[in-house]
Amino acid sequence: GFGRLYNMNVIESLTKNQQNKVKSITQKAVNYLSDNIIKNYNEAKNFKKYRITYSIINELYALSFFDFNESNNYETAKNFYIEKLENDWRNFDFAIQAKSALILYREGKTSVANLIMKSLKERSQYNEVLGMYWHDNNSYHNAASKVSEHAIIMEAFKEIDPDTKMLNEMMVWLLNHKRTNMWDNARSSADAIYAIVETTRPQDNNTTKWLSVDNNNTSILIKVKEQKSTDNAPQIFFQKYWNANEMTDINNLKVENNSNDLVWGGLFRQYFVSIDEVRKHKSPLAVEREVFVE
Length: 294
Prior knowledge:
Shape: elongated
Structural class: mainly alpha
């Protein structure tokens, strides 16, 4: 929502009039959510045994993006729920644990937040092809999207315990899910895109990507700086051609990514032959050609 847009500094790119409109909307939302948390607290405090609800956790997460003047009543209610999160986080599924860690971390409860992240890391699964993921999300409701759940876990690791290699492995799972299936709906797509953008967003504007091609122990290194197009968008695709006389041994080629960025790439051989010289080869794929002449 707007909290994530503020976090990515997107709102700053809007016109002054648009910024004022967004500020008005978010202020009303903050007031509504904080009042609702106070209302729920006034009911919850009367129960001897109370378990924090997922709706309250979502509201606390949404409010954690904003700095606002907290009333005494809201601060009392928030502290009550923060204590519940510190004690009960083990009862939640993976995604809600990650969201709880973000709330606690932003409230200065770093020790518990780090403990949650350590627990999530220990229960993760890894596959060389699929990447890093959580096999049994044990979601709190059937409508929950695995993509959205995975994205919130990525967000938590990026903010609390950033590790480039681990985040890239998590992104592999997210991208593979898109390639082999689909992101379930518009919300899942927005969550996934936010997680990817936050994970890959450079710390400065001097990002450099490297590609090396090893040809028969002869390294061909290409250094490509991000080129800006006319609309100031970074160019994130490039290709390189070699002539046949530059390839001394096409049976021994290796493509490596020497940067810390996750990239997709490949090496393709192009050759030309006259159509009448094409011959059948042993292959699982059989193609036959028939020509009809009137």
